[in-house]
Amino acid sequence: MDFYHSSTGNDIPIIDDTPEGRAYAMPSKIDGSAVGYAYVPRDYSVYPKEMFDPPSGMPLIPESEMDARWEEQEALKSSLEHVYLGGPGGTPIFTNLDQNGDGHCWAYSTGQAIMLVRASMHQPLVRLNPHSIAVCLRQLQGGWCGLSARFALANGLAEEGTGPGQWPLHSNSASNDTPACRALMAQYKVTEDWIDLTRDVYDQNLSDQMSKTCSFINVPHPSDFNHWSHSVCTVRWVRIEPGSWGRLILNSWKGWGRHGLGVLRGDKARSDGAVAFRAAIAA
Predict the structure, then answer these.
(1) Residue 257 sits in which domain range?
(2) What are phi and psi of 69, to 5 degrees?
(3) 277 vs 28, 150, 192, 233, 268, CA distance in Å?
(4) SS3 for 64?
(5) Is residue 268 included in any domain, yes or no?
(6) 221-225 and 273-274: which strand pairing?
(7) Domain at 91, CATH number
(8) What's the DSSP call for residue 96?
(9) Using H for helix, E for strand and C for coil, what is the string for 104-146?
(10) Separation CA 178–CA 273 (nearest Å)
(11) What is the domain count for the chain?
(12) Taking the CB of the first residue and of the last residue of the chain, which one, N or C, has fewer CB atoms within 10 A?
């Protein structure tokens, strides 16, 4: 198996069409714990594309500038990868969220993106619980990232914990959906619009160039993959070698990758749905 050698010195696995890459991407268990998938394609008869806001616009970074942008991020250690691995000795500033085998990947991709946005804005580190999105939507059998992003835009999501208004770790109980919880959730809304730039092609997807542009302006984006039946958070695009790029993702499986990080390369890197959080999160 190939690895991406990040600037922090960590070896991050590359997921591609090699037998090793395919096997690494599709485990049933990690360290004895179940993993979860359950991304499902959007039902257009129930959720027509008009439910989403129109694109707000994104000045795209030309491909010809991307090498220079990459080298600047590496020199300044200014990317979201550097933010996430900004703990002592290149450790993560928070442990990646774990969906615990439940089919809530589509909510966890949004939750981790919100946590990365908050971290990049130097806001207090608060561990969020994306189970709250799936349960509040009564959507326990799978979904897609646009649905969880729409909920987070309107409602936010819950803090992880057992205190007043918090949501217990991995709980699928609707009894947690209380007025106190909703009030606390509202502190973690996406406070500006999220981007839906190619509705005429994929309805809420981002092209590779759009995704790379997000990468160079530190905008994390939940991303869905049909080939994987899975949704994860895109952290940035990385240059594996000259002329070869991959999508660095943060997964919601305990013990997977390097602190939850892996790189999707080639056809595996092409998303089938994505939304980008480009703005502030309420403190």
Answers:
(1) 66-277
(2) -65, -45
(3) 30, 11, 8, 11, 22
(4) helix
(5) yes
(6) antiparallel
(7) 3.90.70.10
(8) P
(9) CHHHHHHHHHHHHHHHHCCCCCCCEECHHHHHHCCCCCCECHH
(10) 31
(11) 1
(12) C
